[in-house]
Design goal:
Elements: E1 5-9, H1 16-31, E2 37-41, H2 47-54, E3 59-63, H3 80-83, E4 89-92, H4 95-101, H5 105-118, E5 121-126, H6 130-134, H7 138-150, E6 160-163, H8 177-195, H9 197-202, E7 204-208, H10 216-220, E8 227-230, H11 237-253
Parallel strand pairs: 1-2, 1-8, 2-3, 3-4, 4-5, 5-6, 6-7, 7-8
Helix pairs in contact: 1-2, 1-11, 5-7, 7-8
Length: about 250
């Protein structure tokens, strides 16, 4: 039985004061919810502060990105060594990184490798663009992405994958639960081809893309979907707590 995971990606939002206030609004509600892993991913500048605010709770912390070198002349980047002691998870290969900053599978792969080496848990994001979906290329695209990102990694135990169709990110247009379940099932079978059924069955695969409190239950009722990577709704304390509560209740009932 895979423990569901709900991660809130705050993206480039919240000042230090706003991040503190947001954590204060949702901390108690999130902490009391059992049976689901809860992860907050604030901007880099807030990681240390949010970590202190979450100390002693069941809520975990994640970063939104990471460079693949430990140190060097990479102005503006953050290394895995800098994240150690600050957070447990790190989002890698998010569609916005791929779309706006030119990240490819060849760039994401070493990031995944060094995350494991450093003891961080990667949340590997992948998904198709609208033109790829309309051309019927979803399966080809996501299979290529997962194989490309994991190429050369011997055993990605603990890996979390987030299926995020690019056309659904921040658009208010979510993929259907049935479609998402089928694609996530394909991803699980691909991981099984690479590493065997046991590791694949233990790998948590999330859905992301315009997730809200109004549609989360439809996704969590699907057998292959183990949680969600939540964007805009994670900036609304009550809604995010509601999303986590619904997810815990549905998976507990299965």
């Amino acid at each position: 039985m895979r423990t569901p995971l709900i991660a809130g990606n705050w993206k480039m939002n919240t000042t230090l004061a706003e991040a503190s206030a947001l954590v204060g609004e949702m901390r108690e509600g999130l902490d009391r919810i059992e049976g689901v892993d809860k992860v907050l991913c604030p901007p880099f500048i807030s990681l240390a502060m949010v970590g202190e605010l979450l100390r002693g709770t069941s809520i975990k912390l994640g970063a939104q990105n990471m460079h693949f070198e430990d140190k060097g002349a990479y102005t503006g980047e953050v290394s895995p060594l800098m994240l150690l002691g600050l957070c447990e998870f790190v989002i890698l290969g998010h569609s916005e990184r791929r779309q706006y900053f030119g990240e490819t599978d060849e760039i994401v792969k070493p990031k995944v490798q060094v995350a494991f080496k450093a003891g961080l848990t990667p949340i590997l994001c992948l998904g198709e663009r609208l033109e790829e979906k309309e051309a019927g290329e979803t399966e080809e695209v996501v299979t290529r992405q997962v194989k490309g990102a994991l190429n050369g990694i011997k055993s990605p135990g603990g890996l979390v994958i987030a299926y995020e169709p690019v056309w659904a990110i921040g658009t208010g247009r979510a993929a259907t639960p049935v479609e998402s379940n089928a694609t996530i099932g394909l991803l699980r079978r691909t991981v099984a081809e690479l590493y065997g059924a046991q590791l694949a069955q233990g790998t948590r695969i999330l859905y992301g893309g315009s997730v809200t409190a109004s549609n989360i239950s439809e996704f969590m009722e699907q057998a292959e979907i183990d949680g969600a990577l939540v964007g805009g709704a994670s900036l609304k304390a009550r809604e995010f707590v509601d999303i986590v509560e619904q997810s815990a209740a549905i998976k507990k009932g299965k």
